[in-house]
């Protein structure tokens, strides 16, 4: 089976996750896909295959050398984004892309164009897999799964390639931020791991945001508007005042690279009560803490003006930058970068402006940087994956395990 055939098979499973379901996996389709993969791994001859009640699928490729080398894991996620349907994905292969517009759907005039997506031009001449314009593709992260499985198959068929014990893990619900929660790091038993969940060729990531949420509830005082003078407190007006107290340019639309932000993601209210929901993000832990302090100060100020208890704040840390866990073992980044170079890929090390399963796993004791899976335009109808990207990612895995064994 080629990686393309494997990938096309995988995207036929509807594994869209659902943040409101409250169970693990959040949708039954992920279980169905996990069962299918389990069978495939059995047929390939992997060992220690386990699929737990939460649909975490683990397996082992045993070491084929005498020497003791670190056990290393490769991880990808089963689910696709809740942002767009992943049902009845109908992929199409665009043979040797000519650099022009790609019509995804003639009837609905849905076009994947380098005018909007100049990244396409880096893949002129390559075979691309695209959608029919009505679903996402699911390269995030079925490309990652296909690469890992294909690499394991290759290693099984080429016993002359020497490697230590390799663990692979496929988890549900990454897209709703729950992929790492029930990941049994001890059972996985690796010294470190790599998530195959990045985008473009060469991506290698070990930094992500520190993240917190702030839910601010403003209690007003509702009085008949005809008799409200000096009595009414309109919580909407207060909310408006509060929003204007946040630094105006420290928002997602005004920041990039290592710049952090406050992001107002929700507002809900009436005269009596208004709730604001913010997310707070910063790569730097110290700056992150001072952002949280800033929110507390704003709340304090309003309470001193309008009376204690007018504004209530619930601050919650969500995840942290994995950099502090990776830094003491930078060789795991160096190894990945060297493996990429060895197969002709230029490593592109950059900070994620978001979180990853790998960050949470790193704090659970499994240091876990992120390697490209090769797809682009994740989470929407314009998602596509160049086939050579998937082939390169597979080669990176094969190269990487050899390097780890020969250290
Ligand atoms: Zn992903």
Describe this structure in words.
With 407 residues, the protein is of the alpha+beta class. The protein has two domains: 3-208 and 322-405, Aminopeptidase (3-Layer(aba) Sandwich), CATH 3.40.630.10; 210-318, Alpha-Beta Plaits (2-Layer Sandwich). The protein is 30% helix and 22% strand. The chain contains ten helices and 17 strands. It has helices at residues 3-10, 28-44, 139-157, 185-188, 235-243, 285-306, 323-326, 331-342, 357-363, 387-405, and strands at 47-51, 57-61, 72-77, 92-94, 102-105, 110-112, 128-130, 166-171, 192-198, 203-205, 210-219, 261-269, 273-282, 311-319, 348-349, 370-372, 384-386. The strands form four sheets. It has an eight-stranded mixed β-sheet with strand order 1-2-8-3-9-16-10-15, covered by helices on one side. A four-stranded antiparallel β-sheet has the order 12-13-11-14, covered by helices on one side. The chain has a three-stranded antiparallel β-sheet with strand order 4-7-17. A hairpin with a 4-residue loop joins strand 5 (102-105) and strand 6 (110-112). Helix 3 (139-157) crosses helix 10 (387-405). It is globular and about 85 Å long. It starts with a helix and ends with a helix. Residues 77, 140-141, 174, 197 line the site of zinc ion. Its main location: cytoplasm.
């Amino acid at each position: 089976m080629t990686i393309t055939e494997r990938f096309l098979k995988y995207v036929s499973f509807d594994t869209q996750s659902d943040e409101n379901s409250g169970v693990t996996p959040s949708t039954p389709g992920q279980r169905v896909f996990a069962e299918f993969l389990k069978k495939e791994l059995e047929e390939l001859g992997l060992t220690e295959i386990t699929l737990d009640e939460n649909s975490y699928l683990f397996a082992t490729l045993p070491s084929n050398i005498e020497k003791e080398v670190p056990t290393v894991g490769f991880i990808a996620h089963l689910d696709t984004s809740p942002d767009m349907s992943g049902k009845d994905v109908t992929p199409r292969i665009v043979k040797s892309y000519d650099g022009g517009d790609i019509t995804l759907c003639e009837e609905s005039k849905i076009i994947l164009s380098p005018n909007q997506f100049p990244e396409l031009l880096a893949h002129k001449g390559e075979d691309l897999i695209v959608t029919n314009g009505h679903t996402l593709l699911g390269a995030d992260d079925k490309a990652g799964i296909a690469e890992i499985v294909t690499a394991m198959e290759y290693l099984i068929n080429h016993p002359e390639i020497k490697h230590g014990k390799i663990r692979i893990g496929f988890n549900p619900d990454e897209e709703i931020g729950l992929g790492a929660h029930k990941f049994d790091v001890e059972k996985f038993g690796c010294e470190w791991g790599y998530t195959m969940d990045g985008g473009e060729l060469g991506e290698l990531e070990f930094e992500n945001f520190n993240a917190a949420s702030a839910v601010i509830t403003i209690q007003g005082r509702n009085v008949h508007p005809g008799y409200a003078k000096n009595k009414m407190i309109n919580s909407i007006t207060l909310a408006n005042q509060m929003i204007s107290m946040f630094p105006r340019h420290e928002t997602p639309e005004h920041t990039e690279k290592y710049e952090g932000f406050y992001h107002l993601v929700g507002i809900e209210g009436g005269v009596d009560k208004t709730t604001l929901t913010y997310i707070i993000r910063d790569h730097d832990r110290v700056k992150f803490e001072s952002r949280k302090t800033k929110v507390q100060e704003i709340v304090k100020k309003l309470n001193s003006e309008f009376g204690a208890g007018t504004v209530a704040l619930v601050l919650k840390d969500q995840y942290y930058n994995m950099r502090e866990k990776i830094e003491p073992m930078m060789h795991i980044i160096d190894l990945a970068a060297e493996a990429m170079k060895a197969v002709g890929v230029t490593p592109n090390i950059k900070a994620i402006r978001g979180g990853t399963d790998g960050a949470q796993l790193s704090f659970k004791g499994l240091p876990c940087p992120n390697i490209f899976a090769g797809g682009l335009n994740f989470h929407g109808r314009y998602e596509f994956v160049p086939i050579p990207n998937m082939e390169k990612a597979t080669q990176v895995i094969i190269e990487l395990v050899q390097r780890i064994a020969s250290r």
